[in-house]
Each structure stands twice: as structure tokens, then as C-alpha cells.
Amino acid sequence: MKIERLSQDKIRIFLTFDDLSERGIHKDDMWREIPKVHELFSEMMDQAYTELGFDASGPLAVEVFALPAQGMVVIVTRGKMNAHAHDGGHTLEEDDADDEIYEMEVTLEQSDIVMYSFRDFEDVIAVSKQLQSSNLTEDGKLYSYNGKWILALEPALIDSSKHNAVIALLAEYGEATSVTYAMLEEYGKVIMSESAIGQICLHFKF
């Protein structure tokens, strides 16, 4: 579980599928109101407070993005307390009610985009060469984001029998990223908007 602060009132939590399975949670459970998910959320908020000093009191907007090969991204935004809420505006303490610690407005989205980040452009070239020479794919978008290169692939454009081989190569050279596609589109810079792997192989020779 990785937690990072995006702003004073917003954090991002990256959960791998191992994080979920260790707690007996299947990714589809995140769509359901079950005690295990509440326990996981409480654990995430405790860790966010310990690591970042993020106080999760008051209303929270929670966005959950499912990423097919990497895990899940949870974005938590802290809202302002309403003046009339909770007995004249007092923060609801855990002792007051076990079941109502957090006021959550949950948004769930599933993304099929596979994204891996690379520190060095040489790694992007290397993985592109491998993907092309293995006849796996020449597709993809290349972004620059936060000092890293991010390769985004649309699984629908890749033969389903080759998915695992593509993921294995991407994981060998880069690492799964917790950035959502929406954030990439908004804050990242598009370097190659289509056929990124094919273009890289064409322009960069070893």
C-alpha cells in the first residue's frame, strides 16, 4: 500500500492486488458495502494519518479506480464540515459511533488502460524493441509526467492471447504506476499520441 499527498485536502492510495488478497478482499468487493472493505478503509486512513498527518474527519469524497494489471487507486478528498452537521459542527469522533466514522461519497470507475512508468527513456526504447520484435504490439501512447515516462496501452488493441507477455515485458523494464488515465490526460504531456511503440522503434535504433 502506497500513500501520497496530492494537496492539503487530497491523497492518493495505491493498492496492489496482493494488498487486497492479504486481507481476503477480491477486487469486485470494492463495489460492495462489506465489513472487510470498511476495515481496509479504516486501515488506509490510519496509515494516511501516521505517514502524512492527513486527518480524515468530516465528509470525504472517495474515488476508486480499478486498473487491470496493477491494482486499485483510491483518491480521497476531504470536504468542509457543514455548520449544522454533527451536533452543531463538532467533528464526529470514533467513540460516538463505530459505524459512522467517515461520511463517504464513493465513485467507482474501471479503466482498461495498462500503464507503466519508466525512469529512463533508454528503458522505454528497450521495452519497445522487445514488444515489437516479439510481435506483441506497436500501439500505445507515451506521456511525460512528474519526471517519468509513462507508456499507456489499450488492451482492446492487443491480441488477448498476448496480454500476459506484454505485461511481463513492461514489468521487466518499468513499474506499474498508480496514476489514473484521467490525471495523465489532465496533468501529463502527450509525447506520442498513437502507435508509440512503433514510432519509438522507427526513430531510435540501437
TrEMBL record:
InterPro entries xref list: MecA_C_sf (IPR038471), Neg-reg_MecA (IPR008681)
Domain of life: Bacteria
Gene3D superfamilies xrefs: 3.30.70.1950
Function comment: Enables the recognition and targeting of unfolded and aggregated proteins to the ClpC protease or to other proteins involved in proteolysis.
UniProt name for this protein: Adapter protein MecA
Subunit organization: Homodimer.
Family per record: Belongs to the MecA family.
This protein's domain notes: The N-terminal domain probably binds unfolded/aggregated proteins; the C-terminal domain interacts with ClpC.
